Amino acid sequence: MELNILWFILVGVLFTGFFFLEGFDYGVGMLLPFIGKNDVERRIVINTIGPFWDGNEVWMITAGGALFAAFPHVYATMFSGFYMALFLMLVALILRGVAIEFRSKDESFKWRSTWDWMIFIGSTLPALLWGVVVTNLIQGIPINSKMQYAGTFFDLLSPYTLVGGVAFLLVFLFHGALFLTLRVEGELIERSRKAAVKIGLLAALVFLSLVGLTYTNTDLFKSELASSALWGAVVIFVAGYVLLWLKRFGWAFAMSGLAIAFTTIAFFSGLFPRIMVSSLNPTWSLTIYNAASSAYTLKIMSFAALALVPIVLAYQGWTYWVFRKRVTTKKLEY
Amino acid sequence: MEEVLLARWQFAITTVYHFLFVPLTLGLSVLVAVMETMYVRTGNETYKTMTKFWGKLFLVNFIMGVVTGIVQEFHFGMNWAEYSRFMGDIFGAPLALEALSAFFLESTFLGLWIFGWDRLSKKMHAACMWLVAFGSNLSAFWILVANSFMQSPVGYALRNGRVELTDFIQVITNPYVWGQFPHTILGGLVTAGVFVTAISAYYLLKKRHLPVFKPSIKIGLACMLVSTLLVMGTGHLQAQFLAAKQPMKMAAMEALWESSDPAPFAIAVVVDEQNKKNSFEIGIPGALSFLAYNKFSGEIKGINELQAAAEKKYGPGNYTPNITQSFWTFRIMVLSGLWMMLMAALGAFFFYKKQLEENPFILKLLLWSLPFPYIANSTGWILTEGGRQPWIVVGLQKVSEGVSTNVTSTEIWISMIGFTVLYGALAAVAIYLVHKFIMIGPMDEKPVLSVLTKKKEATLWN
């Protein structure tokens, strides 16, 4: 296989892993102030993602690094073009990271409550912004002939991309609520289930509008793979919701994860072979060819990725095995 | 032009701030792993208490390094997009490898370490901290590979208007990185050694928790003694390498305007950058030649000659870094290093004589040595990066050519002020926490869950 294509797939895999894993992290973070009614419960909610969240965030860092290594022009255009969006995201991620670490380090009510809301903001904003970013990639942004972003921050906000942001946010919320049903005990399970039931319905509606707007605003459906993946995502999402009704939480969570994965696949295959679409002139889009690193670099990186990714998957998988038991009040670390 | 200056300031703030936390992560992960290994080997609960106490401080520091590190990765694309286009073929690879081979490792196994005390065997748990230590030090290697290329490019070709990788092995065996990497790792161990020693000295002064902090200070002093010696040694080798590979940086840090043979080592100068001379200077004759070549003769090229040569090669322009800054950052770094070496020797001597506890003067000196590793780490990097100016990649791209062209100065102002305020606030919180933990001291296990009253919770959260 051509290495440019391999790297497009690898970047897609990294983003899929990122959205799947950080999806429930963000969801849990957003639900924290609502599901956790007192300090013990909030600690439980945080501990459901406690051992995992930092490792999950590395998926995003690796996706960024992979873009830099394999498609440096995309990295340069995207990061300088989405400047203010990424600035907001960084502030959110900083607050979220330190909040998870710091909240238990002091016992005052104000301290903990403040950090809890930081976790909430730090999870909400990135979820929203990633939706805006991804939908912008396929809808097209003003990229000029020199591969430069020629718009402002507000050009990134359109009805379509805002729906994209809200859809990501709600789907992650649903995903996170389902994750909680698997990781908590007693009353909290019921509370998470109820939250998932409510959010799921709303998420389904907004997600369907996203699909509709994607049809009218982008050329995603021209790709057969993309359109079947997106319809697949819709069907899987609905199946997840039905399974939630049947209280088959494990299966429902698997479905919400799969729906996220299928959506990511749909957007990536809809983009292919472009990575960033130019709204000014289709020939100015950044593609896996004009934005790529040299064949030699791609080759070196391919060996490295193919050797390292399975190892990472193995030990991250093992972590989930180690912490497979539900978080209880009896043994509450931190 | 304003964007270039702002972007440089922002990068300086981001990097220096990030690197306040990184060296301690590099070194303290190793020391915590050593402590836990001692616990596993001996079964002595004191070592477990030590592991937990230092581990707690480690975690506060670690998370600060992580969150500021994300900014670091994003910044190359946000503020330095043209640099990223020009260098992506070479620079992106070590960055991606850093994430794949190191960040995953440290973050995943730290999660296991924090939450795995009751779920993993003792050995496995200690192994997790070793993997964290390995991961973080490996990440230092990859980022230094990338930085070394910027200082001394190897294994590349100029093609398609950018630098392209031609030999990956050359890039990772770049002699520059093998000077920088050991020096950085050892700098981390120095930082951790001083950190552990200084805080332990505080407890010995207050005569609190002696069973925990006597063994702690032993580990701290041992680490300090060995690593300060080695860090000096590697620094010396690096300087010799500089004399050969980056003569301008060498001349700048010595404020040596005219080529000299033998060259003196200046102790103090007053630089007159406009007239390209030193208006005041005292030095040791021949000492610089000795430092560079191990003999009291040998020519060291001066700034004026190097500037003329650069103009001939690259066209008119200023190829001289800031001399005053280079000169003094180097000396501050070296003096801090010497001070820490002296402290390590004194501390170790009195410890060996079993008189350390009864010597408040030495203990106070050790306690007040805490800022020095931070000063040395920061000045060292300011020297390294400042001495590279005006190049972003030596000989290939200037800093002014690397900046994003479509990012406005307003945007940079907003993000710079935003980050700086946030960084300031977080630094205050982190210092507050570390201070608080030090005041509380190591404790027996007690539930960390709060003592909040049910009533208060109910009113606010429902």
Write the layout of secondary structure elements.
The complex is a heterodimer of chains A (about 325) and B (about 450).
Chain A: H1 3-35, H2 39-49, H3 53-70, H4 72-81, H5 83-102, H6 109-139, H7 159-183, H8 187-217, H9 224-245, H10 249-271, E1 274-276, E2 286-287, H11 295-322
Antiparallel strand pairs in A: 1-2
Chain B: H1 2-42, H2 45-78, H3 81-115, H4 122-151, E1 156-159, E2 162-165, H5 168-172, H6 175-206, H7 210-245, H8 247-254, E3 265-272, E4 277-284, H9 287-293, H10 303-314, H11 323-352, H12 360-367, H13 371-386, E5 391-393, E6 397-398, H14 399-402, H15 409-440, H16 454-461
Antiparallel strand pairs in B: 1-2, 3-4, 5-6
Assign a percent range to the helix content of chain B: over 70%
The best one-word shape of chain A is globular
Order of helices and strands of chain A: HHHHHHHHHHEEH
Which stretches of chain B are low in confidence, meaning pLDDT under 50 for 5 or more residues running? 445-462
Cross-sheet strand order for the largest sheet of chain A:
1-2
A few lines on this structure:
By secondary structure, chain A is mostly helical. Helices cover 75% and strands 1% of the residues of chain A. Chain A has helices spanning 3-35, 39-49, 53-70, 72-81, 83-102, 109-139, 159-183, 187-217, 224-245, 249-271, 295-322, and strands spanning 274-276, 286-287.
Would you give an account of this structure?
The complex is a heterodimer of chains A (334) and B (462). Chain A is mainly α and 334 residues long. Chain A is built from eleven helices and two strands. Helices cover 75% and strands 1% of the residues of chain A. The longest helix of chain A has 33 residues, at 3-35. The radius of gyration of chain A is 20 Å and the shape is globular. The relative contact order of chain A is 0.15. The model of chain A has no long low-confidence stretch (mean pLDDT 92). Chain B is mainly alpha-helical. Chain B is built from 16 helices and six strands. Chain B has helices at 2-42, 45-78, 81-115, 122-151, 168-172, 175-206, 210-245, 247-254, 287-293, 303-314, 323-352, 360-367, 371-386, 399-402, 409-440, 454-461; strands spanning 156-159, 162-165, 265-272, 277-284, 391-393, 397-398. Chain B is globular, with a radius of gyration of 24 Å. The relative contact order of chain B is 0.13. The chains are: A mainly alpha (334), B mainly alpha (462). The interface between A and B is large, with 79 and 82 residues.
